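hi! just following up on the protien thing from before. the input was this:
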Amino acid sequence: EEDRFGFDPEVTAKVARGQWRVHEVSISYNGRTYEQGKKVVWSDGLRAAYCTVRYSSLWPIGPKPTEVGLTSYVDEELADTLHVMDSATNYADWIGETLQQYLTGTVAEIGAGSGTMTERIRRTATTTIATDLSDARVRELRGRFEGATDVEVVQGDAASALSGRAVDAVVLINVLEHLADDVGELTLIRHSVQPGGHVAVFVPAHRALYSQFDQRVGHYRRYSKATLVAALADAGFDLVEVSYFNRPGAVAWWVLARALGMAPTGRRAVQLFDRRVVPVIRRFERNSHPGFGQSLVAVGRRPTREGPATPVVATTPPVG
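and the predicted 3d structure came back as:
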């Protein structure tokens, strides 16, 4: 899971925890000079110390992700969460501001939910295609954007939503973690994005934060920076940027969801965090590169050397 100097203590601790027998093989290589090498700073030492404990037998093991997907039970759980998060306007604006430069032209939002982020996407997009699998969510979307000529609501998955279309960008906000085959979904999306167009993804971060709440809302996984970058690369996208998002949220999630087993999306807590904390950390993280966070945001670009977009043909007619 680690992609910096935490790699060494992670692997060492996991080998020790598994009681594996190790055989060392000698290799030949050309060493780098000091000027060429990576410079270790004090924060790397702290990270190494954390990883030594984090991946050892001292660390409590979280619940194992289960393949839950989108069931009727998960849909009900998500509905409550979406309605609470709809009131977190500062948080939604923050996500929208982070991605807005990539969301122009015709933009497809996969898993639009109740339309919280759709409202932000349409500020920069010419046309927004808002999609969702849930009957209830699609009814909400149609009611919310009734009469809007720049928003089209489609019920179905990415294959249905993008069937016969070529778009400029696709965005998935807290969606990729719900999919068993995330690379397959991203690959499908790449074929419908114009060369030079973008896919923007926002996902929960850190396997260590995986909780019973993650299970209840249908998460297959939480991502590390390395696993998210690998998923985009395997799907054929060039990486534009990737960064952690919302450091205090990671701490709050650990305390509430992991340690106390509570739902971290209580209305009062979310509104207080949104009004008092988000404006501060939004300014602070704008010019910094957090080493951890509650979420990860990444943007991939379809290589321009590829041919024109080849719109997906759905195997079943799109609904809606």
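The longest helix spans residues 267-286.
Residues 8 and 284 are 30 Å apart (CA to CA).
cheers
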